[in-house]
């Protein structure tokens, strides 16, 4: 079996051009934030540790417009059903906020790579299929690392049932 190594980094979403002022959910956006992150990409909601020895909780998602995604999670539609991702994620994050936890948003910086001649990463995030593929790969890598509590809903394709975590 061939191995493919994917190089990526999570970079904090920032509020100002100097790179300072990490975005903390549910803060208001700056003009710079909206301009910089109104692009397709993969992001990670990260709940910082509450206690020593505790794992950080993460949720990995993708969006055609990252700023709009953050905004919709912050303020989901009042008519959204319980199965709506924005509403579910908002409810989950609100529970952490009630525990006085800090939540930040990181953006994936993925070095370009190819699979059978198809390019991924870098400037390919405008293609929803490629963006979702990278989201799935990063989710699998973070889950395998064991470093985080992964909050994404997991669907067992055999049982087709959701895990109780979400």
Describe the structure.
- There is one protein chain.
- Helices cover 28% and strands 23% of the residues.
- The protein has one domain: GIY-YIG endonuclease, CATH 3.40.1440.
- With 166 residues, the protein is of the alpha+beta class.
- The N and C termini lie far apart (34 Å).
- Strands 1, 2, 3, 4, 5 and 8 form a 6-stranded mixed β-sheet that branches.
- It has 4 helices and 8 strands.
Low-confidence spans: pLDDT under 50, at least 5 residues? none
Choose one word for the global shape: globular
Strand content: 15-25%
Number of E-type strands: 8
* CATH class type: Alpha Beta
Structure at a glance:
This protein has 166 residues and is of the alpha+beta class. Helix content is 28%, strand content 23%. It has a single domain (8-150), classed as 3-Layer(aba) Sandwich (GIY-YIG endonuclease).
Spell out the blueprint of helices and strands:
Elements: E1 8-12, E2 24-25, H1 31-36, E3 41-47, E4 56-63, H2 66-74, H3 85-98, E5 103-110, E6 113-115, E7 118-120, H4 128-145, E8 148-150
Parallel strand pairs: 4-8
Antiparallel strand pairs: 1-5, 2-5, 3-4, 3-5, 6-7
Helix pairs in contact: 2-3
Question: What labels would you give this structure?
Answer:
166 residues; alpha+beta; six-stranded mixed beta sheet
